[in-house]
Amino acid sequence: MSKTIRLTAAQALVKWLSVQMNEDGARFIEGVWAIFGHGNVAGLGEALHGIGDALPTWRGQNEQTMAHAAIAFAKASKRRRAMAVTSSIGPGATNMVTAAALAHANRLPVLLIPGDVFANRAPDPVLQQIEDFDDGTVSVNDCFRPVSRYFDRISRPEQLLSALPRALQTMTDPAKCGPVTLAFCQDVQAEAYDYPESFFEPTIWRVRRPEPDKAELDAVVAALKAAERPVIVAGGGVIYSSAEQTLLDFAKKHNIPLTETQAGKGAVDWEEGVNLGSAGVTGGEAANVALAQADLILGVGTRFQDFTTGSWTVFANPGRKLVSINVTGYDAAKHGALPLVADAKVALERIEAMLGDKSWPERDADARAAWYETTDAVMAAPNRQGLPSDAQVIGAVQRQATPDTVAMCAAGTMPGALHTLWRSSQGGYHMEYGYSCMGYEIAGAMGIKLARPEAEVVCFVGDGSYMMANSELATAVMRRVPFTIVLTDNRGYGCINRLQMATGGAEFNNLYASANVEVQPDINFVAHAAAMGAHAVKAADIADLEVKIGEARGRDIPSVIVIDTDPYPGTGAGGHWWDVAVPEVSDRAEVREARANYVKHTALQRVD
């Protein structure tokens, strides 16, 4: 007869999580972010207090941003480690839904444990309970279902015996990886059960490397051999597979130029000659010209998001073929691609063995050099009076960067500008652009630093995103997690204002100057950040920004550097068309002109 141990369901959950290990011998779930309320304070709160440092608990300021920090930690850990996040029922739970969507879009693991209603329904309706008039089994946590890769409701203590292994199987599966939600009924958290002792034996979770199907591999190699101008598109799957060096060696041996998605940027150092830089809407000219001419595009670990493909207008060669290496069949077969469902590193090794010494002709190296001359010019310090552009801000940080610098961002102007302009060392770029979620930036920077304490993390954030979610700055101060925030203040949503104007619209409701407000705000971001304990200063100009970037090194708390910027200029270099629908009918001549341009470009789209 097997031995048992009597625990509450909450105690069993945290005890089990504390002994789940990755292949390096570290806890897979590094810790639990928690804001307690009714629904998790009595059950999970007591259990987390009891387990102590065996599964650390960290207090945040907002459920969504706690989850952002956890997701950034997982991304910076190449999905080899993750975190859990728990909330009360009701608004605490639904605050995490946005973060779940972000993790789902980016294929990143996070364990969400929202408190739920009473399984026994005795006190229904409890405080914050959402009642469905037609379905007694529904709670507000059902909102997590479409944005979770695995969802379960724990309504009996023994259900953990199957639910917890399924959760970790999902989070460590390279093809299914994403958010897991375990909605935990609050009365069940406190109920006891006799769990088998064997359930709590340490487990090592290995991330499998799927081998390619022989027929698919043969077809891909044949297509490559027949191609005359192949180009690689490197996605985030290269990094999660730890295939960075394999990809670089493959590209150099066979002389195939490569381009980068937002998630793939930083897989290969920018100084490598085969690296043509960013692709697509926020791409550089060297990369986009090569992709337009390519007769075969080899996607490695990318889902071919519309920014990468210029809404399917960048790959302009009429005879081009699309090949997609991906661990997920869903992504590998998109848009009629020739699929190779496999781990990126393994797939490249297998293709390499079959290609032998085949190499493609040298390309015009002048295009790459010309592109970097162009970006040098737009990132140079201004030689005129007036507010600097975002490109000039990036240039200032770039000139002060070291090989350990990680540039990170998520939404607004900076993601596109950084993708286009930032010159990343290997591992020096972290962008959340699958969901492009405003408010990820500060919490995400903290998550990166927790995962990679040796890195110098520089968080680019606009005033709009800062206003949406800044409270985890206080958490980083309390936990002594240092990173540098470059806060560009353009007095509104400058990125969307430019998009509004580009589609023929009048400036309206984006910059404060065009919003229906009685008083134009003059927000003192330095005072605000300082009030939360950060070291906060304002840079007078680009030269002063460079000085303050250097001064931020060595502090044990976050540094916030505020600089006023011009909301109107774009990057001044690179770029490609993006499909943003323009109204067919308008009284504005600008809209009608933009519509004509829109129709011209949609005619170039390829959906095959």
What does this structure look like?
With 608 residues, the protein is of the alpha/beta class. It folds into three domains: 4-205, Rossmann fold (3-Layer(aba) Sandwich), CATH 3.40.50; 214-363, TPP-binding domain (Rossmann fold); 374-564, 3-Layer(aba) Sandwich (Rossmann fold). 37% of the residues lie in helices and 18% in strands. The protein has 24 helices and 22 strands. It has a six-stranded parallel sheet with strand order 4-3-5-6-8-7, with helices on both faces. The chain has a six-stranded parallel sheet with strand order 13-12-11-14-15-16, with helices on both faces. Strands 18-17-19-20-22-21 form a six-stranded parallel sheet, with helices on both faces. Strand 3 (29-34), helix 2 (44-51) and strand 4 (57-59) form a beta-alpha-beta unit. The longest helix is centred in the middle third of the chain and has 15 residues, at 365-379. The radius of gyration is 25 Å and the shape is globular. Residues 412-563 form the Thiamine pyrophosphate enzyme TPP-binding domain. Residues 217-350 form the Thiamine pyrophosphate enzyme central domain. Belongs to the TPP enzyme family. This is 3D-(3,5/4)-trihydroxycyclohexane-1,2-dione acylhydrolase (Decyclizing). Residues 60-129 form the Thiamine pyrophosphate enzyme N-terminal TPP-binding domain.
